[in-house]
Design a protein that fits this description.
By secondary structure, the protein is an alpha/beta fold. It has 11 helices and 10 strands.
């Protein structure tokens, strides 16, 4: 038994030693100017994703990704567990979250990187969690009015922990038992803005999200700007307003962004001297979304601002 225990401990040391060696090599490569692949927008079971942090990190490492951020909606929950999993697989890790912000009825999410769980964060998250229950209740009642008999208990059961806020995809998954369509279709047909079961109760504005992220010591990045459902000129005015308010960056590389989109958002970033990020926004891999896709290599400037270098 003692021999087997010793072998197990030696194996564990070997695994962690190899992982630490990979991280050191990645950082040395960056100092030498060699690019690193990164995915700075992934969701886990701590919000509305399907994979554990361990599974996310395993998949990322198998694809040659060197840096990840698991950016769950409206929470930094599990931050240390996520970092431990990343280290296990030899990945550099950046703490992150995604604030589900809206400008009126338009989705304008904001990613926060490098935040700390202080008073500003705790107050903001408490308010958001309370509002999430009110939204869920409102959406359930709207579903029931149109003949979909989903219950609030069914929605709450979709969370991986009772301590977590309720997300739109939790509602979609619960309602889907009665609708029998893809989760994404449930959202698009029923829960998207101006759809019959949509609720916008207690949503923060992107300006409030930026302020909270900064108060928590983080960097605020406008997520998937190509998905902001405004016409071109209105969207540009909003983005410029957010940059002037203090947004630090924009997610230019994103699965649904075309080459033209990427070039446009990159030009905006350069014009307003803000950072560029990229991520897959993977909740689960379905042939359309996959961890590490599209490929994104962070600039040296971004890595320095994020304290990776």
């Amino acid at each position: 038994m003692r021999c087997k225990a010793t072998q197990f401990m030696n194996a564990e040391r070997s695994i962690h030693g190899e992982a630490n060696s990979r991280v050191a090599k990645q950082r040395n490569s960056l100092h030498l100017g060699v690019s690193m692949l990164a995915d700075l927008h992934i969701h886990s079971v701590y919000s509305d994703g399907s994979y554990s942090p361990d599974e996310i990190c395993r998949r990322a490492a198998s694809r040659g990704i060197g840096l990840i951020s698991i950016t769950d909606h409206d929470t930094l929950a599990g931050m240390e567990a996520k970092r431990t999993c990343a280290e296990k697989y030899g990945l550099s890790y950046l703490s992150g979250w995604e604030v589900s912000a809206y400008e009126g009825r338009v989705k304008v999410h904001v990613l926060g990187y490098g935040c700390k769980m202080g008073a500003a964060y705790e107050t903001f998250v408490k308010e958001r969690a309370e509002a999430s229950f009110l939204r869920a209740k409102d959406s359930v009642e709207k579903f029931q009015k149109i003949g979909v008999p989903v219950t609030l208990d069914e929605v709450l059961a979709e969370r991986s922990s009772p301590d977590l806020p309720v997300h739109t995809m939790h509602i979609a998954r619960a309602a889907n038992r009665y609708l029998g369509i893809f989760q994404g279709e449930v959202y698009e047909r029923y829960l998207a803005p101006r759809k019959p079961a949509n609720s916008n109760i207690g949503r923060p504005s992107p300006y409030q999200a930026i302020d909270c992220i900064h108060a928590a010591g983080g960097i605020a990045v406008i997520a998937h700007p190509g998905r902001i459902t405004l016409d071109f000129d209105e969207r540009e005015r909003l983005l410029i307003s957010l940059f002037k308010h203090g947004a630090d960056g924009i997610e230019s590389t994103y699965p649904t962004h075309t080459e033209k989109d990427v070039a446009y958002f990159r030009a905006l970033a350069q014009k307003y001297a803000i950072l560029e990020t990229g991520g897959s926004d993977t909740h689960y891999e379905d042939g359309v979304r996959a961890i590490g896709s599209p490929q994104f290599s962070p600039s040296r400037d971004l890595l320095e601002k994020l304290s990776i270098l």
